[in-house]
Design a protein that fits this description.
4 helices; Immunoglobulin-like; globular; alpha/beta; five-stranded mixed beta sheet; 20% strand
C-alpha cells in the first residue's frame, strides 16, 4: 500500500513539475485555415506566436485546391516547391516542430505562394523565452506580460504537486 501511495505521489509531483512545458497546438491561419484567399496574413499570424520544440502545427485546407510543402529558406523566398523537404496533401495535416530553428511552408499550387500562402515558423529553444539575450524592446515588453501571467500558474502547479505528494506519502489522515 505504501509503495502504491509513493508511486502515485511521485507521478503527481512529476506532472506538476512538467505542467509548465506542455506542447501547444496551432491551427495555421486560425479559423480561416490554410488558404490563398487573402483572408490571412501568415507572416503576421506567425509573428504573434511563440513556437517551441514539441508544438504542433495543423494545416486545414481543401486538398482539391491546396497542399502544404515544407521547403528550404531559398524555396520559401522564391516560392519554389520543386524540391520540397516534405509534402502534405491530406487537407488536415499535422506537423510536429521537433527542433529549434526555422520551418518554411508554402502552398505548391501555382500562384498561391506568390499570393501570400506561405509561412515561416521560428521555433525558439525552451530557455530563450526566460532569459532574453538582448535588452527588452517595446514589442518584447508586451510579450513579457503574457510570460508573467504563466509564471504564477507554474508555481501553483508545483506547489499543488508538492502538497499532494506530501499528503500521499504516508501523512496520517
Amino acid at each position: 500500500m505504501a509503495l502504491k501511495k509513493n508511486t502515485l505521489a511521485i507521478s503527481f509531483l512529476m506532472m506538476a513539475l512538467c505542467g509548465g512545458s506542455m506542447a501547444a497546438v496551432y491551427n495555421a491561419g486560425d479559423s480561416a485555415g490554410w488558404t490563398s484567399m487573402g483572408q490571412v496574413d501568415y507572416k503576421e499570424w506567425a509573428a504573434n506566436k511563440n513556437f517551441h520544440v514539441g508544438d504542433t502545427l495543423v494545416f486545414n485546407y481543401n486538398n482539391q485546391f491546396h497542399n502544404v510543402k515544407e521547403v528550404t529558406q531559398q524555396g520559401f523566398e522564391s516560392c519554389n516547391a520543386t524540391s520540397p523537404i516534405a509534402t502534405y496533401t491530406n487537407g488536415s495535416d499535422t506537423v510536429t516542430l521537433e527542433k529549434h530553428g526555422h520551418f518554411y511552408f508554402i502552398c505548391g499550387y501555382p500562384g498561391h505562394c506568390q499570393a501570400g500562402q506561405k509561412i515561416d515558423i521560428s521555433v525558439v529553444p525552451a530557455t530563450s523565452n526566460l532569459s532574453p539575450a538582448l535588452p527588452p524592446t517595446q514589442s518584447s515588453l508586451s510579450s513579457a506580460s503574457s510570460l508573467s501571467l504563466s509564471v504564477p500558474s507554474i508555481l501553483l502547479s508545483w506547489a499543488f504537486g508538492a502538497l499532494l505528494a506530501f499528503f500521499l506519502s504516508g501523512f496520517p489522515y
